């Protein structure tokens, strides 16, 4: 059974009330509320930077790696499913590659499942 995780906090769908889906990413109601508070506050909260991991301890940084990898895998799965749907509709590898910013051959090699 597939489970979906919030792309921001990494919580599993069973741990939250609602999940909003975007193009290959998901955000839970708790993260939406936090984002709303940040936006209403007129900027970023103190202590948050674009590269917030720089302030993490080594242990915190290492603990975050599986969460980020899991979200990356979830996004990759979403791309795979959309490419499969495009192919089932008869969309050419050339058009799929163009949409992904890669050559037709690269798209075929990455997504066809053929060696």
3D architecture notes:
Pfam families: zf-C4_ClpX. With 115 residues, the protein is mainly alpha-helical. Helices cover 51% and strands 5% of the residues. It has 4 helices and 2 strands. The protein has helices at residues 29-40, 58-88, 93-100, 104-111; strands at 19-21, 26-28. It has a two-stranded antiparallel ribbon with strand order 1-2. A hairpin with a 4-residue loop joins β1 (19-21) and β2 (26-28). α3 (93-100) crosses α4 (104-111). The model has no long low-confidence stretch (mean pLDDT 86).
Q: Which range does the strand content fall in?
A: 5-15%
What would the average pLDDT be, to the nearest integer? 86
> Structural class of the helix and strand makeup?
mainly alpha
Tell me about the largest β-sheet. 2 strands, antiparallel
Helix content: 40-55%
Determine the N-to-C terminus distance: 27 Å
**How many helix segments?**
4
C-alpha-based Rg, rounded = 18 Å
Unreliable stretches, pLDDT < 50, 5 or more residues?
none
Strand order of the largest sheet: 1-2
Order of helices and strands: EEHHHH
Judging from the principal axes of the Cα atoms, what is the shape? Answer: elongated
Number of strand elements: 2
Blueprint (SSEs and pairs):
Layout: E1 19-21, E2 26-28, H1 29-40, H2 58-88, H3 93-100, H4 104-111
Antiparallel strand pairs: 1-2
Helix pairs in contact: 3-4
Describe this protein with a few key phrases.
zinc ion binding; two-stranded antiparallel sheet; 2 strands; 51% helix; 115 residues; mainly alpha; 4 helices
Summarize the structure.
This protein is 51% helix and 5% strand. By secondary structure, the protein is mainly alpha-helical. The mean pLDDT is 86.
